[in-house]
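Please go through the protein record below and see whether the fold suits the sequence. Record follows.
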Amino acid sequence: MLYRTLGKTKEKVSAIGLGGYHLGHPPDPAEAIRIVRSAVDRGINFMDNCWDYYLGESEKRMGAALRDGYRQKVFLMTKFDGRTKDSTARQIDESLERLKTDHIDLIQYHENIRLEDPDRFFAAKGPIEALLEAKKAGKIRYIGFTGHKDPLVHLRMLDVAEQHHFHFDTCQMPLNLMDAHFRSFERMVLPRLVDQEIGVLGMKSMGDGNLLKSGRVKPVECLHYALNLPTSVVITGCESMAILDQAIDAAQTFRPLKRAEVAALLAKTKDAAMTGEFEPFKTTQQFDGTAQHPQWMG
């Protein structure tokens, strides 16, 4: 397994992270547990999850998998949807209970997808107050934010954070062969994260399979492209052992891509990328959980 440093934290994390959402896919929870433990046994130490995935079932499955000594082997991340202090504090405690742990290594503000979301994060009686209290109490260690809609919203979050003299430890966003051409997080946000030493968490390297539907790219090309960027972790969903094998093989076979190789990959995806058809998380509400369930935000 390839390991990288997570921003300023100096934590060593696997370049491939195990996505939590897909752990809710298998009908049998035992299969999800087997996937998590196999991933850890084979070197993946970065675990992704979220308070709302499968209404908490993904966290419960991961919590069960991390018993018997596995918790000590991983860097555990989850996300919360709260836009108030009270809802954030409640979701942190619920995640701790489901994950069967006394602390979460990294917690992230989920779905920073509206221009007002940065203001909500830093508002009086907002999430930041609950997070700082939780950090002081030892419930969480690091703080980040995520989003998949528009790089302008991420840039605004970084601007508002600077105004409040706050440094995020991580930022999660889509990084893939289509994003490079369309509303590009890679081109607009990534350089700033690198400059500020904020740990870069790449997601949607295959866009939940949508990039593959274009017929332009293969799974290993998607993973290698994302790994070739200055990412700390590329998070990928693995709902089966076969897909886990694919992700680990991509990490083991990865070598820095030559400029000509990158150019060739980008050339064959450009036309397909320009309408956003294969990145529906940017162009539709299909992936906007907090828009579909506003009660999650409190």
In short: The chain has 14 helices and ten strands.
